[in-house]
Write a structure and sequence with these properties.
By secondary structure, this protein is mainly α. The chain is 63% helix and 7% strand. The protein is built from 7 helices and 3 strands; from the N terminus they run αααβααββαα. It has helices spanning 11-22, 29-54, 59-70, 79-86, 90-102, 124-144, 150-167, and strands at residues 76-78, 106-110, 118-122. A hairpin with a 7-residue loop joins strand 2 (106-110) and strand 3 (118-122). Helix 2 (29-54) packs across helix 6 (124-144), helix 3 packs across helix 6 and helix 4 (79-86) crosses helix 5. The two termini are 35 Å apart.
């Protein structure tokens, strides 16, 4: 096995070493990054969902409520704006709106400027719930990245932003 900066290795290093032994002709640089990003996502997802669950939310519910909350007063958007912001299908957004409306967390309203347009708005209960959940969520996320210094976090953010923007326009769902 190779030794890496700081002497730290992970499961992806083992996989890469195996591929190097079997296929030394391959460029594994992408696998080194994508493999780690994929493993991190699988590891982080349950830790994020645990916090949402403490608030009685699923991650998709939090996404809808947070999208409305961060839109600013009056905390309402059209279904199309929600769709664009969340990058999901129109059928999915309709289903999500219906479920959250049944729970009393959002409501549908007619657009005061154009009665043909339906707006999706946070209820007071929805706003209180998402405010509590996002406070816990940000603490949890800070804890999850706490293994990196502030400088390392800023560097990682810049690198991930650069990677994401390098293909975001050409890749559906990014």
């Amino acid at each position: 096995m190779r030794h890496y900066a700081g002497g730290v290795t992970d499961h992806v290093d083992q996989i890469l070493d195996q591929w190097r032994a079997e296929r030394p002709d391959l460029d594994l640089s992408g696998m080194a990054i994508i493999g780690r990003v994929s493993r991190l996502e699988r590891s982080l997802r349950p830790r994020l969902e645990e916090v949402f669950g403490r608030h009685g939310l699923e991650s998709w519910e939090f996404d809808v409520l947070a999208t409305l909350r961060r839109s600013g007063p009056p905390f309402r958007l059209t279904a199309g704006e929600l769709l664009d912001s969340m990058m999901i299908s129109s059928g999915t957004v309709t289903h999500r709106i219906n479920r959250l409306e049944e729970r009393g967390l959002i409501r549908r309203e007619a657009d005061p400027d154009d009665g043909r347009i339906v707006l999706v708005a946070l209820t007071d209960a929805g706003r209180e719930l998402v405010d509590a959940a996002v406070a816990d969520h940000t603490v949890n996320e800070a804890r999850l990245v706490g293994g990196l210094t502030e400088t390392e976090q800023r560097r990682l953010v810049a690198l991930l932003r650069k990677l994401a923007t390098s293909f975001a326009d050409a890749t559906p769902g990014c």
